[in-house]
Amino acid sequence: MQKREESELLDATGLLCPLPVLKIRKRMKPLKPGQFLEVKADDVAALVDVPHFCDENGHTLVSHREDGDCLVFLIKKGAD
Q: For residues 75 and 34, what is the distance between their CA atoms, to the nearest angstrom?
């Protein structure tokens, strides 16, 4: 299993819905199944949008946490 330290990073701070999810979708495409994407966002809509995106696209939302004014999501890519 790949370690979290090997995750790709996406800074979506300053972007409003639906842009964070659109950026996530674009960054997930080249990843291999099982790889991780760590996303930083400050739009509160991401609390709903990111889990929904993961569910709809077969990815796993491994964790989410608050880091100051930002939300940090760790997503594991599902099968293609």
A: 9
- Residue 6 pLDDT: 74
**Residue that the structure tokens 């991401």 belong to:** 46
Query: For residues 77 and 60, what is the distance between their CA atoms, to the nearest angstrom?
Result: 7
Catalogue the long-range contacts made by 22-27 (C-beta closer than 8 Å, 24 or more residues apart): 24/50, 24/53, 24/75, 25/53, 25/57
For 22, the 3-state DSSP assignment is helix
Please tell me which residue in 8, 13, 15, 17 is annotated as part of the active site: 17
Question: DSSP state, 32?
Answer: P
Angle CA 54–60–61, to nearest 5? 80
The reply to whether 17 belongs to the active site is yes
Mean pLDDT of residues grouped by 10 in the chain (80 residues)? 70 97 97 97 97 98 97 95
